[in-house]
Amino acid sequence: MARHIGPVCRLCRREGEKLYLKGARCLSPKCALERRGIIPGQHGPNMRARRSKASDYSLQLREKQKMRRMYGLLEAQFRRYFREALKRRGVTGSELLILLERRLDNVVYRMGFAPSRAAARQLVNHAHLNVNDHPIDVPSYLVKPGDKISVREASRKLTYFKALMADKDAPPMPAWLSADRSTLTGIVQALPKREDIDVQLKEQLVVEYYSR
Asked: Which ranges carry the RNA-binding S4 domain (predicted)?
């Protein structure tokens, strides 16, 4: 499976804001954006100075890249989600975000079972998770209301999951999900709505980018 293998902190620096790709590190003084908040590359420090106003295309491209990188997708994958969102009733940008939020790796991250989406994707790939008591190792699996997400019994013996069950400091959870870290189980209560998705993204710019 194709994936980004370079330093992810460079992605945050390129977008000029935190994409929370490395879990707790993004909230610590070690965050690369806090330590060196300039665009990576030899021309990075002077890039903003050369152009005082970004073009419409530049704004659309950067928003598309930001969304794609935040959810950890390559361009071909992301474009397929956009085409699927176009077929659905409702606002295309909101439907795109809802599809991305319904990915199993994102749900595992939102439930607090992983510190980042990349870590959640690894847990799913290694078959540590069940959906409705059936093992699922496909990160792009789309959950639906009523689905039960749980850690497999064999995996609960691992040190990582033992520490997770003992940790009572659970992160905030969106209203459309519920989870119990002491039992490592969660329920998809409903489909997410745009107001439930706490990401600072301007999805209309992404729609405009692909509608050119």
From this structure: 102-159
Most confident of 51-55, 58-62, 67-71, 127-131: 127-131
CA-based nearest residue to 64, from 48, 75, 53: 75
- pTM (predicted TM-score): 0.81
CB atoms within 10 A of CB 5: 6
**CA separation, residue 59 to residues 56, 64, 81, 114, 175 (Å):** 5, 9, 20, 31, 31
Distance CA 99, CA 172 (A): 21
DSSP 8-state secondary structure symbol assigned to residue 142 = B
The architecture of the domain spanning 9-90 is Orthogonal Bundle (1.10)
Amino acid at 143: V
**Which among 68, 57, 56, 83 has a CA at the least distance from the CA of 15?**
68
Q: Name the CATH superfamily for 103-191.
A: RNA-binding S4 domain (3.10.290.10)
Tell me the sheet residues that pair with 131: 134, 149
Q: What is the DSSP letter of 135?
A: E
Q: Tens digit of pLDDT for each residue in 134-152?
A: 999 999 999 999 999 999 9
Rg (CA), the chain: 18
Tokens 């064999």 identify what position? 154
- Of the candidates 144, 132, 155, 63, the one whose C-alpha atom is nearest the C-alpha of residue 103 is 144
Residues of the chain with CATH 1.10.1050.10: 9-90
